[in-house]
Amino acid sequence: MFLRVLFELYGSEVGEDTAATGDVPVTGFQKHGAWRAEQIIKKCGGVLIADGVGLGKTFIAGEIIRRYRERKQRVLLVCPATLRDTTWDKFKTKYQLYIDSTVSFEELANDEQLGGIKKHLKSPREEYALVVIDGSTQLPKS
Known about the structure:
Elements: H1 2-10, H2 28-44, H3 57-70, E1 74-78, H4 81-85, H5 87-94, E2 101-103, H6 105-109, E3 128-133
Parallel strand pairs: 1-2, 1-3
């Protein structure tokens, strides 16, 4: 039912792409989701985006990252190593997203700023205005 409502409201936008300016191509409902997420971040200090599969959580996160970078604020991305080296690396390159540090969960846990033995974060941890945590896992292809 929810998907049907989204399709009725935003269906014509789903296949549209933005011009090759490096902007993250988000639909109307994703723009609204990014705006709403920022309002919750301002009020509560954080937000959890838990949409269904295929609704564009990565694109919403990308739009939020873009907005923070426009304001010259540092962004930290934490995700599984497989996503860091595949999905997120391609996404950052394609949409020209600059993220100060992109680390795996293991690298973050082992960072010297958090009691570990190796430097993984490029900046002092208190300088990151936004921390994006992608807890997703990719299932192996059968």
